[in-house]
Design brief:
The protein is of the alpha+beta class and about 180 residues long. It is about 60% helix and about 20% strand. A four-stranded antiparallel beta sheet has the order 1-2-4-3, with helices on one face. The longest helix is centred in the first third of the chain and has 29 residues. The radius of gyration is 40 Å and the shape is elongated.
Length: about 180
């Protein structure tokens, strides 16, 4: 019985302490929660704000000024673009097509090769962001015909850049890599 009484006295002391100092316990819990919030939430955000991080107002002001300058330059470009003569613009559209037209390009290449008495063997092509790369093979030609063919390609209305030429003996095969461009 005495043992039960001692346990009840201990429980009573704790209960009286909690009841007597509940306001102090609540304040301590609040201060601990406030400290945790400051160190894990507020302090990292403050560091981002003052150290040029993503929340730094001064760095955002610099970015905003850059964007305003860029916007003003775009306005000037828009005004200049509106001044372009539509006839001249149509000429550019003819040279750089709005869509890729592989059959038309191959027809032009083939007709130019026939003009220089070159036998067209084959081709393959790849498309990559506004650039059409064509690999061509010809047979039965000589240096003078190749030179004339490249001269005709240069005069062609469609913009074509020759990026690689390889010869496998005179009168045998001639490989050519050409790049043509289109507006995506």
């Amino acid at each position: 019985m005495a043992r039960i009484r001692k346990e009840q006295i201990k429980k009573g002391k704790y209960q009286r302490f909690v009841v007597k100092f509940y306001w102090l316990i609540i304040i301590l819990i609040f201060l601990v929660a406030l400290g945790i919030e400051y160190f894990f939430i507020v302090k990292p955000k403050l560091e981002q704000t003052f150290s040029g991080g993503p929340l730094d107002v001064e760095s955002r002001q610099v970015i905003l000024e850059e964007q305003k300058t860029y916007y003003e330059e775009l306005k000037v470009l828009e005004i200049e673009a509106k001044k372009i003569n539509q006839v001249e613009l149509e000429k550019v559209n003819y040279v750089l097509s709005k869509k890729i037209d592989i059959p038309d390009i191959l027809k032009q290449i083939y007709l130019l090769s026939e003009k220089e008495n070159m036998e067209f063997l084959g081709f393959n092509y790849t498309l990559d962001q506004g650039v059409l790369q064509i690999n061509l093979s010809f047979e039965g030609t000589n240096y003078q015909n190749i030179k004339k063919y490249l001269n005709e390609l240069e005069k062609n209305i469609r913009v074509m850049d020759v990026t690689n030429i390889s010869l496998a003996g005179i009168g045998s095969t001639f490989d050519l890599k050409i790049q043509s461009y289109y507006i995506e």
